[in-house]
Amino acid sequence: MEKVLLINTGGTIAMSMDASETVKPLDDQAVDKILPFLTSYAEIETINLFNLPSPHITPQIMNELKTRIEQETARTAYSGVVITHGTDTLEETAYFLDLTLSLSIPVVITGAMRSSNELGADGPVNLISSVRTAVDPASRDKGVLVVFNDEIHAAAHVTKTHTSNVATFQSPQFGPIGTISKKHVHYHHAPLAREYYPIRHADANVPLIKAVAGMNPEWLQFLLDQPIDGLVVEAFGLGNLPPAVLPILKQLLQKGVPVLLVSRCYNGQVQDVYDYEGGGRQLKSMGVIFSNGLNGQKARLKLMVALQQTRDVSALQQMFD
Ligand SMILES: NC(=O)C[C@H](N)C(=O)O
C-alpha cells in the first residue's frame, strides 16, 4: 500500500467551536480523528509538528517545515506528503515550499474553513482528497499543490478569496489545475515551469506596503530607519504610485534596498506603461523591479528567497520576469 506522510501544523481543521461560537485550537491530536477515513487510500504516518493558528506562522516556521519534509522524505520512501495548515497563511506556506523544495513526490497542503465539530465540517473531505491526490502518480513533479473543496491549485497562483466560504481557495488568473471527483483525480492543466531556490535561512527582513489614494509619505518614513533587506510595494493597477511616496522609494533605492512592484489588482501583471509622475515608466527608470503577476504576500516570500542568491537588481528582475 502507498505510504503518505501527514504533517499537521494546526489551523481550523484542528480547532473546535464552543456554544458561544468562538473557535479555539484543540489539542494536537484533533486531525487524528480523521485518520480512520484515510486508511483505505494509504498507510498514513503522522507527525504533529505544530499546533498553530496560521496567523502565527512565520517564514522561519515555514523553513522548519521544509527542513523536516526534506529529512523525513530522505529517510523513508513516501509516495507523497500531505500537510494540514490554517487557511489564513496557507498560500504563503504553500508557495514558500514550492520555491524551496526540490522533490518529485507530491506535496499537498490543505486545511478547513469550518472547525472540526461544526456541521458540514470540510476538514475530513479536504484531507481525504489530499491523500487521494498525494498517491496519484499524475500529481508527481507538479510542485506544491493546494487541495481544497474538490479542487487542485498550483501554489503560485492560489489565494484565499473568501473569509468563510469553503470554496475560498481560487486561482483568479488561471483557475484550478485539477479537480477531484468521487472516483478520480483529474488534471486539466499543467502548472507553469517550476522554480527552485536552495536557501540557507528565511530571515530576510522584507516588508510589504500597499498603495492607497492620498497615501501619506510620513507613513513610510519609518522604512528609512529600519534594517530592511528589500521592500515590496502593492501599487495601483498596471503599476503606478502616488507621486508623494517617490522620495522615500528613491532614498531606499539609493541605500541599495531592492524595491519590488506588484499590483493590488488580483489579475494581470505590472508593466512600465504609464509615463506620468509616479507612473510605471518612471518607477522602472528609478530601478524598481517589476513582478510577474504574483500577489504581494507571495512576491515578498520570493524576494526573501531570491535575495539569498543575489542583490543585483537586473539579476533579481530576471528572476521575476
Ligand atoms: N480556516 C482557518 O484555518 C483560519 C484560521 N484562522 C487559521 O488560519 O488558522
Characterize this entry briefly.
The chain has seven helices and 16 strands.
- What CATH architecture of the largest domain would you give? 3-Layer(aba) Sandwich
- In helices, the fraction of residues equals 10-25%
* CATH homologous superfamily placement of the largest domain: L-asparaginase, N-terminal domain
The major beta sheet can be summarized as:
8 strands, mixed
Overall mean pLDDT stands at 95
Order of helices and strands: EEEEHEHEHEEEEEEEEHEHEHH
Number of helices: 7
Report the C-alpha radius of gyration, rounded.
20 Å
Q: Tally the structural domains.
A: 2
The total strand number stands at: 16
What is CATH's topology name of the largest domain?
A: Rossmann fold
Instruction: Tell me, briefly, the overall form.
Output: elongated
